[in-house]
Design a protein that fits this description.
The complex is a heterodimer of chains A (about 475) and B (about 260). Chain A is α/β, with parallel strands linked by helices. In chain A, strand 3 and strand 4 form a beta hairpin. In chain A, helix 9 packs across helix 10 and helix 10 runs antiparallel to helix 11. Chain A has 11 helices and 23 strands. In chain B, a hairpin with a 2-residue loop joins strand 11 and strand 12. The longest helix of chain B has 15 residues. Classes of the chains: A alpha/beta (about 475), B alpha/beta (about 260). The interface between A and B is medium-sized, with 26 and 33 residues.
């Protein structure tokens, strides 16, 4: 092997900057999962009976299910009895009423992660819900948002304060029995974010949730539900990090989006869970079900994701295009380095007439990583005039990694148009040498080449986060040369 | 009257292996500031290997010999430092870098060089003025400003872009590897004009080429024939004409004789 490709490998040697542990006392359930645990979680949340019934139904169904094995990922069997399904930082009284009552250690944690929750230092124009292990610890800008009629709160608060909305929409996009991990989540989910934007309202600021796993031996099972009522629009972003630990930890979330007539939801993810060390030890298993339904006509749901973390990623943010003329979009950058495995993509289900979807997937593999795009474009007989455009590009760095593309298409209406383009390229020693010959350092050159490759996706991120995503990518590619 | 010339590049008994095979078998070459040299030779003679080795391509293993550039040991420098020191390679096959703006790369290149020389970096506005002027000179349309590096460029556009980069970076030594191949006559004239505009008593140009026709426009001070990994014959511009007329076999035969 040439020394140049070793340089490339050294360059992508990732330093994980969010790997610290917050030393905080927590209130955790012991490891194990049975109906008592499910009931205990529901009780901690003071849930009504109907939600508990839903959890138990999901749990009973989950027990009959098999863990899926079709994904192009490999891992040791997960012992579901060895995971704690609830862990929350202990607070002196009940839930803190304001930020001043939030444990300073938690505020400090988010500060260190670059997510200041404190009044003075808040991210301008961005409201944040901070979820720490199993619970939401703070939500900023609640008052300002409520003036516009927008509800943005933790899922627990939503259950308490807006039970009718929760009951109406929860599980309406991802049924509890949908798949193994969604069923597990439906049984044990602990917290997450809830958004409701009333008719005709354009949400006045970006909303974001920042997920942090801290406690060891726990899983994080959050639930996000976003509803944009008729003519409403909202842009939402989630970020994720976790400490460096040698054991794998499970993150199995469910996200449901509902867009009614003429509503628009833009959902962006910057996922940087701990990916494991350079030998593949530790890291988060990110097994997530994300689905949006364009329920109304002329509605639009757009997923943008930048996935740099997790030992294993298994997620397919999807759109059900039910409403006439509705639009689904999926823009993705997935980076897999060292021994990371990513099996990610999307599903676009065209049901309504003249529905349109766009898929742009950029996969970057380095080290020994395995990066798979898996996508389904399904055009039902009712979807006359439907259109899809798919573009999947893979970039390989070094020669020990791999990239796979599995595009599935089912077209049942002859008036539909489906286009697919795919490419695989190697980060060229030629490209690198070209830049070096122009006097540009190897590190800058790799950053430049990778950013160029991802440009069309970064363009889709909200401006506040495009820079963050670019920086994250640079950090992942930061290396020893120079 | 003899003019005092400073030696810019001096290659001594350079041998180079690529993938275990000896390609250069003892190359000697001296290039003075102010000169234009042409290196000609049949396919597979080692011309491109020589160009790439001088630019610092790492897959090419130097097994013996030395190269000095302005008195410094060139082979001890990594590729990017050779570039910043003023060595430019015009690539035979300029690579595409999708999504990376052509101007952005060139500005980064110029600033890397200026930074290394302790000069202030140029800002975007200043740079735009500079590049627009050079593009006009090279008869390039402004659409080049927004396109990705060589992305979807025709063969001729790629070569023109190489010369544009050279004009912006103003190297002390420009090595142009078959920059003339694949050009129509109009493009050849523009490229030649670009190269000629760089001629200066402090700079030198090494043209690697198959054909004499470039040398009608950029007249070399010296012509060398590289074949079998060695420079077997050197002469003035008339040598190129003779090669055009008689082919390379003649050089080999006359050498054996």
């Amino acid at each position: 092997m040439s020394s140049k490709s070793q340089d490339v490998e050294a360059l992508v040697g990732q330093k994980y900057r969010h790997g610290f542990i917050t030393d905080i006392e927590s209130d955790s359930l012991p490891p194990g999962l049975d109906e008592d645990v499910v009931a205990a979680i529901s009780k901690k949340k003071h849930e009504p009976q109907v939600l508990l019934d839903g959890r138990l139904k999901a749990f009973r169904h989950w027990q009959t299910m098999q863990e899926p094995s079709w994904a192009h990922v490999h891992y040791k069997p997960i012992d579901y009895q060895d995971i704690s399904y609830y862990s929350a930082p202990k607070s002196p009284a009940n839930a803190p009423k304001s930020l001043d009552e939030v444990d300073p250690k938690l505020l400090e944690t988010y500060e260190k992660l670059g997510i200041p929750l404190h009044e003075r230092a808040r991210l301008a124009g961005v409201a944040v819900d901070a979820v720490f292990d199993s619970v939401s610890v703070a939500t900023t800008f609640k008052d300002k948002l409520s003036k516009a009629g927008v509800i943005f709160c933790s899922f627990s608060d939503a259950v308490r304060d807006h039970p009718r909305l929760v009951e109406r929409y929860l599980g309406s996009v991802v049924p509890t029995t949908d798949n193994f991990f969604a069923a597990l989540n439906s049984a044990v989910f602990s917290d997450g974010s809830f958004v409701y934007v009333p008719p005709g309202v354009r949400c006045p600021m970006e909303l974001s949730t920042y997920f942090r796993i801290n406690a060891a031996k726990t899983g994080q099972f959050e639930r996000t539900l976003i509803i944009a009522d008729e003519g409403a629009s909202v842009s939402y972003l989630e970020g994720c990090t976790a400490p460096m630990r040698d054991e794998n930890q499970l993150h199995a979330a469910v996200v449901e989006l509902v867009a009614l007539d003429r509503a628009q939801i833009k959902y962006s993810t910057v996922q940087n869970w701990y990916p494991g060390d350079e030998n593949g030890l530790g890291g988060i298993y990110n097994f997530v079900t994300k689905r949006g339904e364009c329920r109304g006509r002329d509605s639009k749901i757009s997923w943008t994701q930048v996935e740099t973390g997790s030992a294993i990623t298994w997620k397919y943010p999807s759109c059900i295009l039910k409403g006439e003329n509705s639009i689904g979009e999926f823009y993705s950058v997935a980076v897999a380095n060292n021994y990371q495995q990513a099996d990610t993509g999307t599903k676009m289900i065209h049901i309504g007439r003249n529905t349109r979807s766009t898929i742009v997937s950029k996969g970057i593999s380095a080290g020994h990583a395995d990066n798979t795009y898996r996508g389904l474009v399904k055009i039902l007989p009712s979807a006359a005039g439907a259109r899809n455009f798919t573009q999947c590009d893979s970039l390989l760095m070094g020669n020990k990694c791999s990239a796979n593309t599995f595009p599935y298409m089912e077209v049942k209406n002859p008036t539909a148009t489906v286009e697919h383009e795919a490419s695989t390229s190697k980060i060229g020693e030629d490209q690198l040498f070209y830049c070096l010959q122009r006097g540009i350092s190897a590190e800058d050159a790799v950053n430049m080449i990778v950013s160029g490759f991802c440009k069309v996706v970064f363009k889709e991120l909200p401006m506040e986060f495009a820079v963050e995503a670019q920086n994250l990518l640079s950090v992942s590619l930061e290396g020893a040369v120079g | 009257m003899a003019i005092e010339r400073t030696i810019l590049l001096e290659i001594n008994e350079l041998t180079v292996r690529v993938a275990g095979k000896e390609i250069l078998k003892g190359v000697n070459l001296k290039v003075n500031a102010g000169e234009v040299h042409a290196i000609m030779g049949p396919n597979g003679s080692g011309k491109s290997t020589l160009a790439q080795v001088l630019a610092g391509r790492e897959d090419y293993e130097v097994t013996s010999g030395s190269v000095s550039f302005e008195g410094r040991d060139l082979l001890a420098l990594p590729a990017e430092e050779r570039a910043r020191a003023g060595l430019f390679l015009g690539f035979q096959y300029p690579v595409e870098i999708p999504g990376v703006n052509n101007v952005y790369l060139l500005k980064a290149a110029l600033n890397a060089k200026r930074k290394a020389a302790g000069e202030p970096e140029v800002d975007a506005y200043e740079f735009l003025g500079l590049i627009k002027q050079k593009m006009k000179f090279m008869h390039m349309s402004e659409s080049f400003l927004t396109r990705g590096v060589n992305e979807g460029f025709s063969g001729g556009e790629k070569k023109r872009n190489e010369v544009l980069q050279m004009l912006v970076l103003e190297p002390k030594l420009a090595i142009l590897d078959e920059t003339d191949s694949g050009l129509d006559i109009d493009a050849l004239k523009v490229v030649s004009m670009g190269v000629n505009s760089l001629r200066d008593p402090k700079r030198a140009v090494v043209l690697v080429t198959h054909y004499q026709r470039l040398l009608d426009h950029v007249v070399p001070d010296q012509v060398h024939v590289l074949t079998g990994g060695r420079i077997v014959k050197s002469g003035d511009k008339s040598l190129a004409q003779e090669l055009e007329r008689r082919g390379y076999d003649w050089v080999l035969e006359s050498r054996v004789a």
